[in-house]
Amino acid sequence: MRAHTFLITLLVSAVGLLSKTNVVVFLTDDQGWGDLSLNGNTNLSTPNIDSLAKEGASFDRFYVCPVCSPTRAEFLTGRHHVRSGVYSTSAGGERMDLDESTIADLFQQEGYATGAFGKWHNGMQYPYHPLGRGFDYFYGFCSGHWGHYYDALMERNGELVQGKGFCVDDFTTEAMSFIERSVKKDKPFFAYVPYNTPHSPMQVPDRWWNKFKDMNLEDMMRNRNPNKEDRLHLLAALAMCENIDWNVGRLLKKLDQLHVTDDTIVVFFHDNGPNGTRWNGDMEGRKGSTEEGGTRSPLLIKWPKGIKAGTEVMPITSVRDLLPTLCELAGVKQRPLKVIDGQSLKPLLSGNTKGWKTRTLVSTWKGKLGVRDQRFRLGYKGKLFDMQKDPGQRVDVSKQFPKVTERLNQRKESFQKKVLEQIGPDERPFVIGHPAVSWTQIPARDGTAHGGIKRSNQFPNCSYFTNWTSKEDFITWDVEVGKSGKYEVELWYACREEDLGAEIELSFSGNSLVTTISTPNDPPLVGKQEDRAPRMESYVKDFKPMKMGVIEFKEGKGILKLQATQIPKSQAMEFRLLQITRMKEKGTD
User: Fold this and answer.
1) What is the CATH number of the domain that holds 569?
2) Are 231 and 137 within one domain?
3) What is the pLDDT of residues 212-241, one digit of tens each?
4) What range defines the domain where residue 402 resides?
5) Which side of the chain, N or C, has fewer Cβ within a 10 Å radius?
6) How far apart are CA 139 and CA 442, in angstroms?
7) Contact 300, 52 (CB under 8 A)
8) In angstroms, what CA-CA distances link 380 with 38, 224, 348, 374, 540?
9) How distant is the alpha carbon of residue 430 from its chain centre?
């Protein structure tokens, strides 16, 4: 009798899982609202992305943040990024506080297989890592940008591996494999696919570049400030957007092949405005701006079983709305640890606007604030614009609408006092050896150089340290060891043969580990040959790992220090990262 009851319970559980709705979320990096043929741009063709609107819903005024990691945080938490602890795009400021719950946490708790594929940009060391934020599986990179897009160094669940081919193609293939594995296991899936293009460096395969490389800007749709357009950057961005479209199409076909299209919600949006001056619907601003052009993104949601094809949503909406929306559509219980700022868009998706309250959305970046309601926008310089009559923000109407100006200014001041003024010094250390995982990656990105050591580029995300010429020079990280134990350390480095012999010491809390650079690794810089336009970021090298040995770390906070105690030649080495792995204790599996 007990066995019979147990079998029935298992069957009921299995039916419950099979009946759940799957979710796929595409998030692109630095793609503007105007970078879709759906929105009237004849410079390119994006039929697969456009199909999401034709077969589902499109949102007329959907807003994200001016830059990358804040938008990702708001999608994941449903809260304004400042509230969750995200105030920057690197140096630890991209991390969400650990008392935040994510959309992946909520779906994971409901029995979903959860996977993230691409650019994470919300923390590298566990528990800030994707695997600590509700995802079962991660393939991609955690930094804000990557220096090379072909066969690049990637991470798979904590292990550093070599990618296969062009990264966006690679991410899509990995996501498709994850979905197929989930379907074969009869398990519902939540697949988050945050692409890293068209963010620079501007690299894209010949198949897409060849279509654009010989185009003349004079024959194309232009930006409102055509004199600021960079031809190569612009053409490369368009080619990268068409590559994105091809990959979206690949994944949609996979859903068809697996016969799960009707049971899958597919979401597509961007993380901020365009990363260059190109056609964007005559809007003011681009990436980094709190104006319309820096914060408006397309939002497309397709769900054959639950959303009528061709649905158009006109009220203003926010990336913060996606968590409650997807949870309600999929029947996932909303149990976030904190009150969220977003609200479910389900009524709008069903055509029900009755009772939908007028909203006021605030965007902020680097001290600038923009305020948007359904009709008006208060720019960061204090000017008021009637966005219905003047979508290009050319005419200040603050004197014509003094009450509106006062109301939006009050909203701005309230946000400054209640939210922005709460930002203080970031005292969150980088975590080594969290008890839940054995591995930790400590990159140059998160380090502080002392003495003459220089970073390879002003943008730290994919940089390395060089010019290490003095024994007085060193690198430090403010860290917290989560679990005491012995840790094996790999040093990813580059060193010319004529510079061999440097003695490197890693130390923490009274314990140290010393090794000598004895094997040359002098790879060339890569990336320039593949770049379609000049870059701002570092070129990269094929840094190789060297086993430094074993060090004992004691639980607690302190300074992790890397120093060259002997430099017999011109420089010690060039440094990329440390991979630190806690060793198994005797008698444990």
Assistant:
1) 2.60.120.260
2) yes
3) 999 999 999 999 999 999 999 999 999 999
4) 363-422
5) C
6) 18
7) yes
8) 29, 20, 29, 17, 37
9) 19
